[in-house]
Amino acid sequence: MAPPDTGEPAFEQIASFDDEALRTFLDPHDGGIPPADLAVALEDSDAAFRNRVAAAVPESGRAPLDRAQRTHSARAVAAARRRIVDRLFWPLLYWNDPAAYEELVAGEHIHPGLIDMLELDDRVVCDIGAGAGRFALLAATRARHVIAVDAIPALLARLEEKARDRGLRNVDVRRGSFAALPLADSSVDVAVACSSLTSQGPLGGERALAEAERIVRPGGDVVVIWPQETRWFREHGYSYVSLQGNEVIHFPDVATAERVCRRFYSARAAAWVRRQHSADVPYHVAGLTPPNDACIKRVA
Questions:
Q1: Edge-to-edge strand ranges of the sheet holding 188-194
Q2: Which residues belong to CATH 1.10.220 in the chain?
Q3: Average pLDDT per consecutive 10 residues, the chain (300 residues; last block may be shorter)
Q4: Are strands 239-242 and 293-298 parallel, antiparallel or unpaired?
């Protein structure tokens, strides 16, 4: 999902990331955050923040930061900050407002037919970019063991709490990034990324795809549910499946539907909710395709 035009969050919120999150989300590899943009964006920042960012960026990307001087216009600095925030909108939301993220995704239900296709029974499954457990908790009702990996501690804490509340004892929560999964080679039967893995860093790219395939045993599957860029995955040997049905986002009430649509989708979608007075919003009204498709690759 592209970042919504909400005017939030702000560049300064990047400072709320701990050092591990900075290393994860400011990584320039695979088309991630450009160090040149970072150098410009940091021109008006305090020295402590600049130093934290410089320490987080790989050595190969530090040269622009080391050369950074206050030579750009305020407009150029603001534009660089906007580009970075647009790229990091979702990590910033996950980190700073996990409750809003959970409210957003609560009604986005994965097509049950996709879950059935994965043959999860008695298998070891890794959920990559697990968030608060949208896929992991479903998988845990069928799989022998689920390893849920995410870079956001607040979301992992919510996932653990939900697993306890549901009596699920087969969920193993681990902090990690797409580019460095905390699992051994060939250690799971199925690796799944649900609405999380993209074609570019820091939320995807070549290294992330290689990591997903690395942890899967020969004969197992890597599955990307609700992919944004199906062509990119097909070019990397993935097949594509799409199912019918499941065309509506289910909010708990009309007020929530209108508020969430206004913040994350569009004023048009919020207006539709007001006119229809409906807590069920079709995906096409929100400007989305439904979570009914997946890209799948059998690991040789």
A1: 171-175, 145-150, 124-128, 188-194, 216-225, 293-298, 239-242
A2: 11-96
A3: 56 94 96 93 90 91 76 91 95 95 94 94 97 96 98 97 97 97 98 97 96 98 96 98 97 97 96 98 97 97
A4: antiparallel
The boundaries of every CATH 3.40.50.150 domain in the chain are: 104-245+290-298
Q: Measured between alpha carbons, how far is 175 from 156 in angstroms, rounded to an integer?
A: 8
Residue 62: phi, psi to the nearest 5? -85, -15
∠ CA 149-155-160, nearest 5°, is 75
Give the CATH number of domain 104-245+290-298: 3.40.50.150
Rounded CA gap, 247 and 227, in Å? 16
The residue among 162, 155, 39 whose CA lies nearest residue 93 is 155
Query: Over the chain, what HEC string results?
Result: CCCCCCCCCCHHHHHHCCHHHHHHHCCCHHHCCCHHHHHHHCCCCCHHHHHHHHHHCCHHHCHHHHHCCCCCCHHHHHHHHHHHHHHCHHHHHHHHCHHHHHHHHCCCCCCHHHHHHCCCCCCEEEEECCCCCCCHHHHHCCCCEEEEEECCHHHHHHHHHHHHHCCCCCEEEEECECCECCCCCCCEEEEEEECCCECCCCCECHHHHHHHHHCEEEEEEEEEECCCCHHHHHHCCCEEEECCCCCEEECCCHHHHHHHHHHHHCHHHHHHHHHHCCCEEEHHHHCCCCCCEEEEEECC
- For the 11-96 domain, the top CATH level (class) is mainly alpha
